[in-house]
Amino acid sequence: MRLLNNLFSNLSDICFLNSFAPLRLCVNSFFLNLDKIVRANFLSYTKKIHAKAQRRKENQIIDVLVAFIMIFSVPLSASTAKQVVSVCYFEEDRMNFEIPRIPNFLKGGSGDNVEKGYMLFYERKIFDVLSMFSFYGGGNIGRYHKNDDTLYSASLSVASRFWLMHLILLHPYIEASFFGPTILSKSEFNLNDLKSNFLFQNYFSVGAEIGAGSGLSVELKAVKYFKANLVHPEQGGVMVPLLISLGYLF
Question: What's the pLDDT at 35?
Fold first, then answer.
């Protein structure tokens, strides 16, 4: 009798499970579809986040480029000075420093370095190219000493200036001038034969204008006087290693 009861009980369980088999299939199908939907939404969400991050980077690059263009698109006629008058000074004992890497156009084999020097400098802007380059014409007079010897110079110059950037009140630059005709007070200096009292002047400057159209300028300037001879180039001349310059802009 007990055996029959167990048999009927097992048969009833099997029938009960079989009756709910379609429901179990539906539940499994629901969870499978839900998993697919969640995965698809998650992938779509991560792609959107990646796309937003990429657009943010692109916008940052564009902002930097726009800022760069705006910096260099400041109208030079309004932001930088048209004329400058400056006073330059060098003394070997107090300024024991030279440019680490002297440009080739300032080098000379047997040139004489001055011990002390002064220069009065004038420049006038000729024209601008975009907001990055300017060209200047001007002149300068100098007085140089070594031991007990004194030399005077008078030069004309045409210089090209590269503006590193343009801020509201600060305009740093690099400037160079080549083959400025120069007349010296004599053809020898400190027992060094200069071959002629007509030489040429090269100079290289690093400085900044402080102000907007008027104000002050600060420069470091290296100057070389030499005799140009394309057939037999002369290595001699006079070298001013480093002048400190303070100027007035107007």
Answer: 67
